[in-house]
């Protein structure tokens, strides 16, 4: 069991660090990262929010549609751990339902309805630059183990560095473009998820899995796969059968 955990932790770091060289898909990297973190540290859910060019947080990756909706709720309410972690660049946590209710009443209602009893938010921060937050959810009360928290912080730091890496002489412009592309990609992905879910009458999370599997199998960026689906240039079946170009 311990070896499996260490292997998943290594895999999570590989996901984050391989992006330091060459072009990469920000959304796919962050999505894989939250999946690995949730599985490695026995969390019930995880998500990442990033700030757009106007400084407003948007959900970029989540382990489930339920988690994404919870993230959206706190962004719309302007209240919650991820909002505060981004605002001042410091971690926020609540280890019990009572703490949730006391600190973020509106968010607590939605968190309880989603089945969560504790939450921890870690800012995606590098020095004075804060890009967003990593948000961890558990159905059971209680704090995360210190070593787990340290590992998640390290992964969050690596992800932040990956996004901030300089690829042009104008780093500020490069970073804004990277974030804009990531957020635009998420819109395209959500549209493709909705299309596949409606077409195949499946859960949105299943639709997302179909989309990611096809993108990986065909070595295509996730956002490009999403646009191919919504533009009807490719047909992804609800099984592992080979997808075919639209119109065939």
Task: Break the fold down into its secondary structure elements and pairings.
Elements: H1 2-17, H2 26-40, E1 45-51, E2 57-62, H3 65-77, H4 81-88, E3 92-94, H5 97-103, H6 105-113, E4 118-126, E5 129-138, H7 146-164, H8 171-200, H9 204-217, H10 222-230, E6 234-235, E7 244-245
Antiparallel strand pairs: 1-2, 1-5, 3-4, 4-5, 6-7
Helix pairs in contact: 1-2, 1-7, 2-7, 3-6, 5-6, 8-9, 8-10, 9-10
Domain ANTAR: 169-230
Keywords: Kinase, Transcription, Transcription regulation, Transferase
GO molecular function, one term: RNA binding
Description of the structure:
With about 250 residues, the chain is an alpha+beta fold. It has 2 domains: about 1-165, Beta-Lactamase (2-Layer Sandwich), CATH 3.30.450; about 185-245, Arc Repressor Mutant, subunit A, CATH 1.10.10. Helix content is about 55%, strand content about 15%. It has 10 helices and 7 strands. The strands form 2 sheets. It has a 5-stranded antiparallel β-sheet, with helices on both faces. It is globular. The N and C termini lie far apart (about 45 Å).
Give the strand line-up of the largest sheet. 2-1-5-4-3
CATH homologous superfamily annotation of the largest domain? GAF domain
Helix/strand/pairing category: alpha+beta
Mean pLDDT: 83
Q: Report the CATH C-level class of the largest domain.
A: Alpha Beta
Beta-strand content: 15-25%
Low-confidence stretches: 166-170, 240-245
Q: Could you say which overall geometry the principal axes of the C-alpha atoms support?
A: globular
**Tally of helical runs:** 10
User: How many structural units, i.e. domains?
Assistant: 2
Domain ANTAR: 169-230
InterPro entries: ANTAR, CheY-like_superfamily, GAF, GAF-like_dom_sf, GAF_ANTAR, WH-like_DNA-bd_sf
GO molecular function: kinase activity; RNA binding
Keywords: Kinase, Transcription, Transcription regulation, Transferase
């Amino acid at each position: 069991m311990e070896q499996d955990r260490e292997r998943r932790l290594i895999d999570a770091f590989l996901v984050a660090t391989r992006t330091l060289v060459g072009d990469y898909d920000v959304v796919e990297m962050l999505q894989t990262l939250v999946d690995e973190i949730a599985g490695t540290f026995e969390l019930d859910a995880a998500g990442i929010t990033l700030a757009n060019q106007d400084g407003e947080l948007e959900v970029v990756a989540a382990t489930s549609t339920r988690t994404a909706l919870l993230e959206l709720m706190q962004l719309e309410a302007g209240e919650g751990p991820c909002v505060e972690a981004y605002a001042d660049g410091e971690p926020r946590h609540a280890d019990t339902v009572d703490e949730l209710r006391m600190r973020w009443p509106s968010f607590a209602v939605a968190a309880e309805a989603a089945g969560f009893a504790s939450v921890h938010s870690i800012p995606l921060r590098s020095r004075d630059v804060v890009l967003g937050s990593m948000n961890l959810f558990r159905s059971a009360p209680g704090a995360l183990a210190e070593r787990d928290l340290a590992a998640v912080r390290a992964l969050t730091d690596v992800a932040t560095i990956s996004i901030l890496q300089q690829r042009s002489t104008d780093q500020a412009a490069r970073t804004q473009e990277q974030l804009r592309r990531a957020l635009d990609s998420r819109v395209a992905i959500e549209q493709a998820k909705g299309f596949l879910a409606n077409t195949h009458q499946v859960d949105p999370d299943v639709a997302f899995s179909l989309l990611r599997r096809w993108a990986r199998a065909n070595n295509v960026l996730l956002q490009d796969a999403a646009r191919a689906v919504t533009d009807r240039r490719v047909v992804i079946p609800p099984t592992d059968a080979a997808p075919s170009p639209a119109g065939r």
